[in-house]
Amino acid sequence: MAMAIALVVIVVASVLFHFLSPWWATPLASNWKQMDDTLTITLVITGVFFIVINLFIGYIAWRFRHGAPRQNGQNGHRAGYHPENRKLEIWLTVGTAFGVMALLAPGLFVYADYVRPPRDAMVMEVIGQQWQWAFRFPGKSGQLGTSDPRFISGTNPLGLNPDDPRGQDNVVISGPEVHLPLNRPVKVLLRSRDVLHDFYVPPFRARMNMVPGMVTSFWFTPTQAGRFEILCAQLCGVGHYNMRGMVVVEDQAAFDAWLAKQPTFAMTLAKAAAPPPPAPAGAAGGANAALIETGRALAQSKGCAGCHSIDGNPGVGPTWKGLFGRTETFADGSSAPVDDAFLKEEITDPQARLVKGFGPVMPKIPLTDDEIGALTAYIRAQGSGEGAGAAPPESASAGAPAGATAAAETSSQAASAASGTYTTSNAAVVPPSASPRAATK
Ligand code: HEC
Ligand SMILES: [Cu+2]
After folding, report:
1. Which residues are in the Cytochrome oxidase subunit II copper A binding domain (predicted)?
2. Whose CB among 50, 57, 354, 408 lies 3.0–4.6 Å from 397's, allowing a Cys bridge?
3. Which segments within 75-146 are labelled E, that is strand?
């Protein structure tokens, strides 16, 4: 009896929860209403079966309970034994087969559409790496150049083929914010530089795994202007929760203007090859500024920025703001002043000493001495006022909350990506205290 009541309560509570729940999907912002329809079909079919089966079991448990009165006035039931029932078996088999077909078939049709882009779709490449996003658009020629992991370097983080003429005018966006024009189909090509990631923008109802060694693809048409958050939907390592970005959907004119301001691949190569600019009078010197800029690019391309912010908010690792010149305390209670030698040691052998309050998760990333020098110069520029005159623009925005300075583009990208203070389309702000450090302190 209690069992029967419990089952009825579970069914009623589930149905009520479904209709009264405040947790609904974000408003649809793309052409993929079919995704929602497919989900609704699944929910209705499984929901009906859930209700019917549980109420049936409840009824049977009550109707044939041991203590139920019998015709002859006595109490106590003994179940009948019916090992075969052809008619019932045929009904159940046919019914289940149709149910399963109804669950699977709509998805097959939608998926077939999902991976077959319209001919006039524009192309956007998305590259994932632990724990950041980068993007590439074809330039005027309308073609993407080839790419290969062996071309990846500090100045060519996406591994584009420098000898491919089709790649020279490709537009490279190495920060987490990308723009798209409204109402234009986009074919999305997805690559990963390291592990499995998944490009996911919930309001677009669109996502796809990014698999190292292959290019995956789907398409969608943004149908609402606005800012939409990109999430990584595969647990891709300790910085996974920080792997976020932004799609800004705007009209074609605004998009064209934005795209025209982004550097082409040829421009980034030329900039890297150019001799350092002449030293500004009085300041720390042009060579130093160029070194800091190289360090900034390396922090992005080697993935340091995924764990280390420059805005003062701890991420997976300690922030680099104000690090240089400070005295650092280790987990074992000892301490040491942060100077060049300290930084070099931390970077080359992260497991040797553990900074207090953090986990032993920093990977050993192979770096040349020159690269370590550049990274050290960059970290030095974030700290203690010393060398601040030569620091690139991010020192200007470093003190402000990352979310508020999204306009500072590349410089604050590292900071906001690492500190996790993005304002999302549904206004959820992740405070810095949500970082794992708070828990371990
Ligand atoms: C997976 C996240 C992660 C990545 C990627 C990462 N670090 Fe770290 N880093 C940490 C953590 C966690 C600590 C603190 C624990 C420790 O000492 O190992 C740390 C500590 C440091 C420290 C010492 C900081 C201090 O406060 O004393 C330096 C310097 C540093 N990392 C530089 C780098 C550089 C340079 C890179 C890129 C080449 C990098 N890290 C990449 C997580 C990371
Ligand atoms: Cu990821």
Report:
1. 119-261
2. 408
3. 122-129, 132-137
Q: What are the pLDDT digits (tens) for 132-160?
A: 888 999 988 888 888 888 888 767 878 88
Does residue 38 register a pLDDT over 50? Answer: yes
Q: Which ligand is nearest to the CA of 368?
A: 1
* Length of the chain as a residue count: 441
Instruction: Using DSSP, state whether 301 is helix, strand or coil.
Output: helix
Q: Which of 74, 209, 176, 184 is nearest to 424 (CA)?
A: 176
Q: In the predicted model, is pLDDT for residue 122 greater than 60? A: yes
d(CA 310, CA 314): 9
Model pLDDT, residue 123: 93
How far apart are alpha carbons 404 and 105 in whole angstroms? Answer: 46
Cβ neighbours around 412 below 10 Å, total: 27
- The larger pLDDT score, comparing residue 164 to residue 379, is at 379
* Cα–chain center distance at 281: 43
In the predicted model, is pLDDT for residue 413 greater than 50?
no
Between 63 and 118, the higher pLDDT residue: 118
Which of 193, 194, 346, 376 is the pocket-test mutation for ligand 1 (most atoms within 8 Å of CB)?
A: 346
Write out the H or E segment, with its range, that includes residue 164. none
3-state secondary structure of 48: helix
Q: Is the pLDDT of residue 431 over 50?
A: no
Look at the block and give the residue holding tokens 């350092």: 276
Closest CA to 160 of 170, 182, 10: 170
Distances (CA, A) of 42 to 93, 96, 113, 409: 19, 14, 19, 42
Please report, as a single letter, which amino acid is at residue 332.
D
What pTM did the predictor assign?
Answer: 0.66
Q: Copy the structure tokens of residue 153.
A: 């370097």
Domains and CATH numbers, the chain: 2-66+87-114 (no CATH), 122-267 (2.60.40.420), 275-440 (1.10.760.10)
Q: Which residues line ligand 1 (CB under 6 A)?
A: 238-239, 302-304, 306-308, 316-318, 323, 328, 338, 343, 346-347, 350, 354-355, 358-363, 365, 375, 379
Which residues fall within 8 angstroms of residue 209, CB to CB, at 6 or more apart?
190, 196, 197, 198, 216, 234
Strands (E), 10-121: none
Side-chain half-sphere CA neighbours of 31 within 13 A: 15
